[in-house]
Amino acid sequence: MARNSPAPLQATLSIGLTVLVGVAVMLNYVDRGAVSIAAPLIKDEMGLSATGYGYAVSAFFWTYVPMLLIAGWLADKISVYWLMAAGVGIWALATLLTGFTGGLVSLVIMRLAMGVGEGVAFPAASKLMARAPDARRGVANIAIAGGLAMGPLVGTLAGGAIMESFGWRPMFFIFGAVTLLWLLPWYRIRHQVDVPLPDEHLAVSATYGQVLRTPSLWAMSAIHFTGTYALYFVIAWLPLFLVKARGYSITDMVLLTSMFYAGQTLAAVMAGVLTDRAIAKGRSPSHVRRYSMIILYTIAAFGVIAIGQVQSTPALVFWLLLTSLCYGANTGFLFSVAQMLAGPASAGRWTGVQSAIGNLAGITGPVITGMIVDKAGYGPAFYLTAAIIIGGVIAFAVGVPRIEPIKWGKRG
């Protein structure tokens, strides 16, 4: 498979396009995480149990996961511009309408609609970022990793301020309206989005059958599952844990949760820059990214346990920041490694399958955690999350011994 040089990247992956993709990913996480920010208020107003709240969080993934598969196929087949525009429009409207919900049923319906729209974002974004060469792939994927990390941070800070002044419903109105505004600059750069690479016609794209028969796809999906389980454990349950189990006020909860997301954002940016710098100096892209993932996820597992156990605020801040740094750095690796393995012509399909399997954690995790919290408290939920992370690390270490482009060959 022909390698892309920096010249095509300059022509087809401009800074403006990269930034706008990053903003879309950020808004993706602002909007999906809004229900967690408002959880203490929504849970009390609607009279939801922890299990009921878990179902509301999980409902998003009931449509999100299958949509990832559909969007991954579409990203390799049709205009990424129109695919992204449709997805953003659907999830923005669903976010806005969540402000009108009055109970668990209507809340679940809006979460289902949001899952349909947001399922487009990562396959489409990864398809665009796959244009980058190895020595610039980390920086390009800051758009995904940085946006993913900044979304909960921006959402927590802005959502906390809005809720304190106006309540939780206006937060959803504002978040949805702001996301709709993203479509305006997206329209202005439409001519950049679907420009093919000069050698793209030479690349052999994989079928879904070929992708599913690739062992490294399953290993990547396993570690994506663990990363997603751990991330959504934090997004969905950290605010409630801090308020209900530790007795922090809403304001203190917002500050502590924001620290986690700030560390995640910083690490996402630094990991992209530092890995690209190491690769440009001659280090193996496979070794740099593979060993980084293994080490950082292992540290994160111990961090999750510590967050659930420490009693003092300084200790809690330390472990929140350390764990967030590990989370943030690994987010970009999940997508950059997938792009390296799949190649530009198949990045949409691969990312769609990997993300779909990985995000099954979003279906099971919130409900499992809710049941555990109702029956045994938060402690066992933290230990289970750490064990799942370690399981994913083992699967990745065994299943991806080396990160290099797959030679798909001819179909059939």
Description:
By secondary structure, this protein is mainly alpha-helical. The chain is 81% helix and 0% strand. The chain contains 20 helices and no strands. Helix 2 (15-37) packs across helix 9. The radius of gyration is 20 Å and the shape is globular. It starts with 5 loop residues before the first helix and ends in a 13-residue tail after the last helix. The model is unreliable at 1-11 (pLDDT under 50).
Provide a concise account of the structure shown:
81% of the residues lie in helices and 0% in strands.
Name the shape in a single word.
Answer: globular
Q: How many strand units?
A: 0
Per DSSP, the total helix count is 20
Structural class: mainly alpha
Poorly predicted ranges: 1-11
Radius of gyration: 20 Å
- What's the end-to-end separation, in Å? 18 Å
Approximate helicity band = over 70%
Name the average pLDDT: 84
Order of helices and strands: HHHHHHHHHHHHHHHHHHHH
The portion of residues forming beta strands comes to under 5%
| Biggest sheet details | none
Topology:
Blueprint: H1 6-12, H2 15-37, H3 39-46, H4 50-75, H5 80-98, H6 104-118, H7 121-129, H8 134-140, H9 142-166, H10 168-181, H11 183-188, H12 190-193, H13 208-212, H14 215-245, H15 250-280, H16 285-309, H17 313-342, H18 347-358, H19 360-376, H20 379-399
Quick tags:
412 residues, mainly alpha, 81% helix, globular
